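Let's practice the habit of predicting before peeking. Look at the sequence and jot down your guess about where helices and strands might fall. Then scroll down.
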Amino acid sequence: MGLHSWRSRAFSRDELESGAAVAVVGHTLAAELTTGRPTETALGGGLTFPGATVRIIGIQESIPGERFLIVGGIGIMN
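Done guessing? Here is the structure:
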């Protein structure tokens, strides 16, 4: 994909091996989650899905027209 971090860290080995509930989100999604607040306040926050909540550990750079979520190394694009 060739994505670059805006505010982020990589998934740790332990997170990948254990299937930890952590995520890296796109800048657009982070901005939507933090309306009225600085975008970086999404870090450490949670996203809730049916049956799971994941903690945001990173925000990728802005890519026009894209919102994405990477959970445990598996990407979900839209």
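How did you do? The helical segments are 13-18, 27-33.
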